Amino acid sequence: MAKPLTNEEISSALSDLDGWSHKDDKLNKEFSFENFRDALAFITRIAFEAEEQVHHPEIFNVYNTVKIALSTHDAGGKVTEKDLKLAKSIESLYNK
């Protein structure tokens, strides 16, 4: 079972993740794109990375907006290192 991070550990880690927040036991961020196609392409890139990491985010999409929420099911729905790792990967995909 993955170990949940403390609020202090999460706050410290978020200083390196621009625009991410910690709310309702999840890491959250909203991404905006020029159009629906770009938003869906981003979701597809996330899907491939999530499969590689065997860690799957909650993804919400409306037109050109993608909202991501990360938590770890086997840690009771809390934030773990797995979430931070995937958030960093998602950031690198967005900044390509």
TrEMBL record:
Keywords: Lyase. Pfam families: Pterin_4a (PF01329). Signal peptide: none annotated. SUPFAM superfamilies: PCD-like. One of its GO terms (biological process) is tetrahydrobiopterin biosynthetic process. It is an enzyme of class 4 (lyase). Its EC number is 4.2.1.96. It catalyses: (4aS,6R)-4a-hydroxy-L-erythro-5,6,7,8-tetrahydrobiopterin = (6R)-L-erythro-6,7-dihydrobiopterin + H2O. GO terms for molecular function: 4-alpha-hydroxytetrahydrobiopterin dehydratase activity. Belongs to the pterin-4-alpha-carbinolamine dehydratase family. HAMAP family: Pterin_4_alpha. This is Putative pterin-4-alpha-carbinolamine dehydratase. It comes from Halalkalibaculum roseum.
